[in-house]
């Protein structure tokens, strides 16, 4: 297992510190780790307490989620887009943001569909809340998901809209990968790896996680991450899983180190 330090110890350290949730392959956190891996960026991993009060983290970063990236005395970066710009600045090569403006607009547009507010991951979380906060669940699990539901605005309307929204983003990605394949590329944009490939690959864990030997998850998390929603399952066309497997095999660390 990766080595994590406590927030209290990390605050006074220099350099790059990245707050993550040990043992949980959350897409935003795995994507931050993927970028750090590809860029070989030295960093200290810092522990977020899953669904804990995280008071030291709130004092340090003014929020409680993971991931967060903190560079020296600069303001903490708690969103994927700020983190990408920071990592790209600290280690410009290999570049994960396309230099071509059309490719760049395409990449950030699709990345926002996957990772932005009301994007794929956000809506997939609504479905987790829907499926794991009912009265049939053990109280501890039910309360955890109800907490997430309150925090991230998951009411009945949001849950009802979520499957189609997830499927919409998956369809956009699948179309993109198909047209790239026709041009002879296995990547989402252009001819080489970009951050979008990492985001798509990490987000796919919320449809079908990597097998247990490549990503060891507790039975609960495996159940939560594997969706049985018929609309989302219908959108899970093979090219999406093939792309995820290709990106992990070619560019990322396997088995996943949580
Ligand atoms: N702030 C990140 C997203 C991070 C995020 O939402 N993390 C969630 C994953 S479920 C989290 O840590 N939730 C636990 C909590 O809110 O206590 C971004 O917008 O890029």
UniProtKB/TrEMBL annotation:
Q: Which SUPFAM superfamilies match?
A: GST C-terminal domain-like
Protein name, please?
Glutathione S-transferase C-terminal domain-containing protein
Q: Which organism is it from?
A: Methylibium petroleiphilum (strain ATCC BAA-1232 / LMG 22953 / PM1)
